[in-house]
From TrEMBL:
Transmembrane segments: none
SUPFAM superfamilies registered for this protein in UniProt: Nucleic acid-binding proteins, P-loop containing nucleoside triphosphate hydrolases
PANTHER family cross-referenced by the UniProt entry: ATP-DEPENDENT DNA HELICASE HOMOLOG RECG, CHLOROPLASTIC
Similarity field: Belongs to the helicase family. RecG subfamily.
Species whose genome carries this gene: Candidatus Woesebacteria bacterium GW2011_GWB1_39_10
Protein name, as recorded: ATP-dependent DNA helicase RecG
EC id: 5.6.2.4
Domain Helicase ATP-binding: 274-426
């Protein structure tokens, strides 16, 4: 067998176990080796019964003297017995494992590992791990050494996985594919050693050595993928070439009702430089909520327009598409540029001449002819699948692509997963923005907070968002979410008797959503109760208070985005955070919101505390969770990047990498097993 062999090549792994493996993301022998232990049990201290001390974790070799199934006083089924070696006798108990008696009958020689405790005031081993010894007392595997414990799924116990990994290791040919100097340079053990050390270590240091090498492979893979994507992208040539007319672009910038921030100007320069080139732009524009990304994208649309070409802007929701449409109409009001909002209601033949199409992912399936598109803008791309993005880009030939996100992407992640994109970052806010005073409000102050909110509405004409989280951990609302926000809405109605409340959730028709948002915008509604559909992009300058319920369900970056919905006008603004937790780690995490006002800082913090899933939302984000390496390991990210770059530059030196990545004259390095190596 080799690393690519399917898992079903292992003895006794049929369709049923294959499915179970699949659930752990394991399809090949290699996947199995990369399923690293979550921890190890130190069963390496082998001793005799007379030397046992309470609380020690030990292994003994002994003979079963007696064993029986009994019921405890509370009715729990127990397996209680005694074992003996040449130094003495010891009590052993298990719970709810009646089948044990079939294997562990009197006279059998066993190796038992576990923690020494008391039972009926006598020393005993409670629920020890066990394995049968031959008369010769052969080598133990599940006891008597460092024993790995694996992340489990129902039906695949650690004990079973251990045996399968042992079988696989004994029969698989494991070839090293990195050259010696890379291994020496990174102080890495060979691949075969690494797998052995991770799964069958003599001690923790060995396990760590093995892990380090596997982590290196894991991140190197990501690096190569994005570098290969990058070099493949560079094979593209722009069909609809753009000329940059600087003086007219300058006219547009001067026509804006505000002065650009320094980083907006810098980002625009970077974009304009790309747009003038032959190789299509592939750039990520990253900036905190409210940092002014739209106008930066608008410059690109303007350039395309000046050249007689079209722009396509894709937003994650209908609300945001409408908002982009309105904002851009305002920005371009002095120019003869025409926008079309592509909704499902629009009839193709009603579309007049269009310079900028704005829409949601439905753009992907639109029948409109996009052959004149020279510039594509994708807003909040993590909300779309990679697949959707690729479809859109394909459909429009080889346009320049600008992806925008308010999701603060930690440095290490930007260097790997997004390594194929050039990066522009908006580091500062437009002038005159103010900090949103933030409080984590204890439950006992809830009534007081409601009274305060009423006063703010009456005295200061404040408008308020109240956001209820989704119940399930998903990116899409379920009916249960709608029910829960609706019941909270009714509840709030009975609190805010003299105020006008509106309800907004994703299951409303887009016309209903627009109506409610319009009412909120015009001040007809005082309090908007909503699900996190308000999270991205909604711009209502008069709203000054953001209330977030069950905030522990959000990542800090998500909370920060919600908070960014207020504090957009000149009025003092507030964010009130409610949580079901009033102490402990979850609570401490939320308190960070009171002190930090930087999305990047909060994202880095969450990365440390909870991992990347929290920053990027769930499944749809397309964001890879690392199985072995840590996103906080900056050294590793740097080292793998260097090696990956060297592989691309000096393919001859890395011929053995071929087992994973194949080199072709036409495309350069490409992943032999990935299909995302096409020219997009
Ligand atoms: P985001 O980066 O969150 O998409 P927007 O592009 O929606 O931010 O901009 C937020 C608001 O800030 C908009 O009303 C926009 O007109 C305004 N804005 C953008 N740039 C500036 C600037 N340099 N000075 C003042 N206001 C600006
Ligand atoms: Mg935006």
């Amino acid at each position: 067998m080799n690393l690519d062999s399917p898992i079903s090549n292992l003895p006794k792994v049929g369709p049923i176990f294959e499915k179970k493996f699949e659930r752990l993301g394991i399809n090949t022998i290699e996947d199995l080796f990369y399923h690293v232990p979550s921890r190890y049990l130190d069963y390496s201290l082998i001793t005799t019964i007379n030397k046992l001390r309470a609380d020690e974790t030990v292994t003994i070799h002994a003979k079963i003297a007696s064993i029986a199934n009994i019921f405890s006083k509370r009715g729990v089924r127990m397996q209680i017995g005694s074992v003996e070696d040449e130094t003495g006798k010891l009590m052993v108990v298990w719970f709810n494992q009646p089948f044990l008696l079939k294997m562990l009958y009197p006279g059998r020689l066993v190796s038992l590992s576990g923690k020494v405790g008391f039972f009926n005031r006598k020393l005993c081993l409670s629920s020890p791990d066990y394995e049968i010894l031959d008369e010769e007392g052969d080598q133990t595997f599940h006891t008597g050494r460092f024993v790995p414990v694996y992340p489990e799924t129902s039906g695949l116990s650690s004990k079973w996985l251990r045996t399968k990994i042992r079988d696989a290791f004994a029969t698989t040919e494991i070839e090293e594919y990195l050259p010696k100097d890379v291994l020496t340079g990174g102080a890495l053990v060979s691949l075969k050693d690494a797998i052995q050390k991770v799964h069958f270590p003599k001690n923790l240091e060995e396990a760590e050595e093995g892990r380090k090498r596997l982590a290196f492979n894991e991140v190197l893979n990501l690096q190569l993928k994005s570098l290969i994507r990058k070099s493949n992208w560079k094979e593209n040539r722009v069909i609809n070439r753009l000329e940059i007319n600087s003086s007219v672009v300058q006219q547009f910038i001067s026509s804006l009702p505000f002065k650009l921030t320094e980083s907006q100007s810098k980002a625009m320069d970077e974009i304009l430089k790309d747009l003038g080139g032959e190789i299509p732009m592939n750039r990520l524009l990253e900036g905190d909520v409210g940092s002014g990304k739209t106008v930066v994208a608008a410059v690109g649309a303007f350039v395309a327009f000046l050249n007689g070409y079209q722009t396509l802007i894709m937003a994650p929701t209908q609300i945001l598409a409408s908002q982009h449409y309105e904002t851009l109409n305002r920005l371009f009001s002095k120019f003869k540029l025409r926008l079309s909002l592509l909704t499902s209601a629009v009839k193709l033949h009603d579309l007049g001449r269009t310079d900028v199409f704005v829409g949601t992912h439905s753009l992907i399936h639109s029948k409109v002819d996009f052959s004149k598109v020279a510039f594509v803008v994708i807003d909040e791309q993590h909300r779309f699948g990679v697949e959707q993005r690729r479809h859109l880009v394909k459909k429009t030939g080889t346009p320049h692509v600008l992806t925008m996100t308010a999701t603060p992407i930690p440095r290490t992640v930007a260097l790997t997963t997004y390594g194929d994109l050039d990066l522009s970052v908006l580091t500062e806010m437009p002038e005159g923005r103010q900090k949103v005073t933030t409080w984590v409000v204890p439950e006992i102050k809830r009534d007081g907070a409601y009274e305060w909110m009423k006063k703010q509405i009456i005295n200061n004409k404040s408008q308020i968002f109240i956001v209820c989280p989704l119940i399930e951990d998903s990116d899409t609302e379920t009916l249960a979410d709608v029910k829960s926000v609706t019941s909270e809405f009714l509840n709030l109605k009975s609190v805010f008797i003299n105020q006008k409340l509106g309800l907004l959730h994703g299951r409303l028709k887009s016309k209903e959503k627009d109506e409610i948002l319009d009412k909120f915008r015009s001040g007809t509604i005082d309090i908007l109760v909503a699900t996190p559909v308000v999270e991205v992009g909604i711009d209502i300058p008069n709203a000054t208070i953001m209330v977030i319920e069950a905030a522990e369900r959000f990542g800090l970056a998500g909370l920060h985005q919600l908070r960014g919905r207020v504090g957009r006008g000149s009025k003092r603004s507030y964010c009130l955070i409610f949580s079901n937790y009033h102490s402990g780690a979850a609570y401490t995490r939320l308190r960070a919101m009171e002190k930090s006002y930087s999305g990047f800082e909060l994202a880095e913090l969450d990365l440390k505390l909870r991992g990347p899933g929290e920053i990027f939302g769930t499944a749809q984000s397309g964001f890879p969770e690392l199985k072995i390496a840590s996103w906080n390991n900056f050294e590793l990210i740097k080292a793998t990047k260097e090696v990956a770059e060297d592989i691309i530059k000096n393919p001859k030196k890395y011929t053995l990498v071929k087992t994973k990545f194949e080199y072709t004259k036409k495309y350069g390095w490409r992943l032999s097993y990935l299909n995302d190596v096409t020219h997009v």
